[in-house]
């Protein structure tokens, strides 16, 4: 017999390290004579799309095309310390560092442009720098870079963004331990085969407060990836030990979801602007994963009327849960 159930899981999670732990990122920008920009960050893009977001931020601030930016990351010989790539902090802390660096570089170039154009109300947009009140007073960003280079104007800027917060009161546990928080809720619909114990997830609906989605497709993709990782945690992934030895030696024994295991994932981005974030953005890394296992397990509980307390909810554990309940255990 197959039974269906629906479950929900919700989370809130502090962004960054919090509790007075050092949480600092730096970023470096270098403008070349031809107007191209070299950006450096110690952060790592391992699929979450941070490289794309960083280049978007730089392009937005300097009014240049995305393709004019070369980003170098995670090379300890040439990139500045940006802190670990973890804690749902990359867009928030690293993004703010690039905003600061971009604006510092823009201020330098603005001074050169004011001298050349004889105007002070300058706008950097679409590869041009022009006067807001007299648009005919203009110069291309590329030419401005060359003129700045010829004048010996500093072309390399590094800035830091400090996201370190105060610790909580040691007596009461109260205080602002984190700069901000991330929020997410997910719904899971499952079908459980009571004869075999197999749990099939039919659908996941994920609603995530992303602050401001700087790149909606990136956000959606990262949330989908987090959901899949959460499904593995809930249903398949298990490290077995015996006599103090790990018996799960390879991915042949440590099962993770494949493309054939992924259900329909419906992603909704809830945009509640975070004043401290870059253009209002927050992190989505951990919020994409954390709600999935409780949503799935609550759906199993709804289908069977039984609560599973041991992960993963695989064939073996669910089968023993069903048969144990039938035997009165």
What does this structure look like?
It is a single chain. By secondary structure, the chain is α+β, with helices and mostly antiparallel strands. Helix content is 29%, strand content 26%. The protein is built from 6 helices and 13 strands. It has helices at 50-62, 90-117, 141-150, 216-235, 292-304, 315-326, and strands at residues 2-14, 24-31, 37-41, 69-73, 122-125, 128-131, 138-140, 156-162, 181-193, 199-209, 241-242, 245-246, 264-270. The strands form 4 sheets. Strands 1-9-10-13 form a 4-stranded mixed beta sheet. Strands 4-3-2-8 form a 4-stranded mixed beta sheet, with helices on one face. A 3-stranded antiparallel beta sheet has the order 5-6-7.
Features of the shown structure:
Aldehyde Oxidoreductase, domain 4, 6 helices, alpha+beta, 329 residues
Assign the CATH architecture of the largest domain.
2-Layer Sandwich
Q: CATH topology of the largest domain, anyone?
A: Aldehyde Oxidoreductase, domain 4
**What is the strand tally?**
13
Which residue ranges are poorly predicted, with pLDDT under 50 across at least 5 consecutive positions?
none
Shape: elongated
Share of helical residues: 25-40%
If you compute it from the alpha carbons, what radius of gyration comes out, rounded to the nearest whole angstrom? Answer: 25 Å
For the largest sheet, list the strands in their spatial order.
1-9-10-13
What's the mean pLDDT score? 95
Strand content: 25-35%
Q: So what's the CATH class of the largest domain?
A: Alpha Beta
Biggest sheet features = 4 strands, mixed
Q: What is the string of helix and strand elements?
A: EEEHEHEEEHEEEHEEEHH
Give the termini separation: 21 Å
CATH superfamily of the largest domain: Aldehyde oxidase/xanthine dehydrogenase, molybdopterin binding domain
Number of domain modules:
2
Give the helix/strand class: alpha+beta
Number of helices: 6
């Amino acid at each position: 017999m197959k039974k269906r159930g629906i479950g929900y899981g919700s989370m809130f999670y502090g962004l960054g390290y919090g509790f007075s732990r050092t949480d600092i990122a730096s970023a470096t920008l270098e403008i070349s004579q031809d107007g191209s920009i070299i950006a450096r960050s110690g952060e790592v893009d391992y699929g979450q799309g941070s490289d794309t977001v960083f280049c978007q931020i730089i392009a937005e601030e300097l009014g240049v095309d995305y393709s004019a930016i070369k980003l170098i990351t995670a090379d300890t010989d040439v990139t500045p310390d940006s802190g670990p790539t973890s804690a749902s902090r990359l867009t928030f802390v690293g993004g703010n560092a690039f905003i600061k660096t971009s604006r510092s570089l823009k201020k330098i170039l603005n001074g050169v442009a004011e001298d050349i154009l004889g105007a002070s109300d300058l706008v950097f947009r679409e590869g041009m720098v022009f006067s807001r009140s007299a648009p005919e007073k203009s110069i291309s960003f590329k030419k401005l870079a060359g003129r700045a280079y010829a004048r010996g104007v500093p072309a390399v800027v590094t800035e830091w963004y400090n996201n370190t917060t105060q610790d909580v009161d040691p007596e009461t546990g109260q205080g602002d331990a984190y700069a901000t928080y991330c929020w997410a809720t997910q719904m899971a619909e499952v079908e459980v085969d009571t004869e075999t114990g197999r749990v099939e997830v039919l659908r996941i609906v994920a609603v995530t407060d992303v602050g401001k989605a700087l790149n909606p497709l990136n956000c959606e993709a990262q949330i989908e990836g987090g959901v899949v990782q959460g499904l593995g945690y809930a249903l398949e992934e298990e490290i077995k030990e015996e006599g103090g030895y790990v018996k799960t030696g390879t991915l042949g024994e440590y099962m993770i979801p494949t493309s054939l295991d992924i259900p329909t994932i419906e992603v909704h981005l809830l945009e509640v602007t975070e004043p401290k974030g870059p253009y209002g953005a927050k992190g989505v890394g951990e919020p994409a994963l954390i709600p999935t296992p409780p949503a799935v397990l609550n759906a199993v509980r709804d289908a069977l009327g039984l609560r599973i307390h041991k992960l993963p909810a695989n064939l073996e554990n669910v089968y023993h849960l069903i048969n144990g309940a039938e035997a009165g255990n």
